[in-house]
Amino acid sequence: MVASALWGWLQQWKQSNWQRRSKPIWAAPLGQDIAAWLEKLAVKVCHVEAHVPKNWATEEHQNNQQMDQAAKIEVSQVDLDWQRKGELFIARCAHDTSGHQERDATYRWACDQGVDLTMDAIAQVIYECEMRAAIKQAKWLKPVWYGGRWLKYKYGEAWQIDYITLPQTCQGKCHVLTMVEATTGWLETYPVPHATSWNTILGLEKQVLWQHGTPERTESDNGTHF
User: Fold this and answer.
1) Which of 71-75, 105-109, 132-136 has the highest mean predicted lDDT (pLDDT)?
2) Which value, in Å, is the radius of gyration of the alpha carbons in the chain?
3) 201-214, pLDDT tens digit by residue?
4) Domain segments of the chain as ranges
5) Which of 19, 45, 91, 217 is least surrounded by Cβ atoms within 10 Å, i.e. has the fewest?
């Protein structure tokens, strides 16, 4: 299914030396392997005589027997929606790998990696994503410590960070760094495979510093990953 979906892009990628905008496309080695496999598929074309006596051991008779045998092989029903399913599979991987971002951010990430996806496919996988639904719901919640000592901070200056554990994704990520803005309760998340200090730094850099500025204060449970 995936190979069939990629087939429409393989020629274009191959001609551009597996690059897009001078950047290597996402999962280029996988695409090259699929392209090489598809190009090596054997296609046999032969002449067949429909009415050849069985006692004629001719090439046409042998071809006729092969075609009869092939026609008797039971095949599964052809999935006419293979292209759409393949696109959704790739969109789901892109959404997961890019950190469960929103539609436009996932689309930009896919374009940067050389993956052509439609907004419709991305919107569908985001709608079906359980983790994204949980994140969206949590963003509307105010923190239990809302008010009090946090009132002296402006938006983006104070954050509380912690790790939560969720079911493992196809990318092996089962921990999520949660970063809550103290004055509004706005939640930023960063899925990682392991709760480490290095991943904490990466999450703060990408989700807080780049989007909200440098915080004046961060609070945590002082675990080893903080």
Assistant:
1) 105-109
2) 27
3) 999 988 888 878 88
4) 1-43+76-128, 134-219
5) 45
